[in-house]
Amino acid sequence: MKPKLNDRDVHQKYYEQICEKLKNDPFARFLGVELIEVGEGTATAEVVVKPNLLNVHGSTHGGVIFSLADVVFAVASNSYGKTSVALSMNIGFLAASWEGTRLRATAVEENRTSRTAWYRIRVESEKETVAILDALVYRKSDYFIPVEEA
Questions:
Q1: Sign of torsion, CA 70 125 79 114?
Q2: What is the pTM of this model?
């Protein structure tokens, strides 16, 4: 029986390929999301709120805030090269943000098993926390990049 691949080893050995794949998210690019940092089970990204990202009240659309959080959740949970898909996300909106605001989202892995992982995500402006999310992911057994078996 072959030994299982270690998540940390895969992340470190295939870091460039993993990041290249994760940086090419078409929807994130459409929104103007910039991936800042990718770590083992962590990710940080930013977006500057443009006029097309506002709601009818002139504040940042909740879908934009959620989408920014979803991007870092996807990157953090896929940072080991293993295909991971969202099972659930729960968001609490805490403050409004406005045109010109730079929003930064950070996802941190709180718990990981072979099949699931749980993340805490914070979306912050320069002034305050805008939203907090808890997210659960299902970790499939396949890799989305070519990986040599151990």
A1: negative
A2: 0.95
Q: Which fold has domain 7-143?
A: Thiol Ester Dehydrase; Chain A (3.10.129)
Which residues 6+ apart lie within 8 Å of 35 measured at CB?
A: 19, 22, 23, 28, 43, 44, 45, 71, 75
**Residue 129 near residue 122 (C-beta atoms within 8 A):** yes
Contact in structure between 21 and 144 (CB atoms under 8 Å): yes
Strand, helix or coil at 75?
helix
Q: How many CB atoms lie within 10 A of CB 141?
A: 9
Q: Which residues are bridge partners to 34 per DSSP?
A: 46
Phi/psi at 19 (5° precision): -65, -40
Residue of 103, 106, 86, 85 whose CA lies nearest to 42: 106
Question: What does the pLDDT look like over 32-55, one tens digit per residue?
Answer: 999 999 999 999 999 999 999 999
The residue written with tokens 């929003």 in the block is 103
Whole-angstrom distance, CA of residue 97 vs CA of residue 90: 19
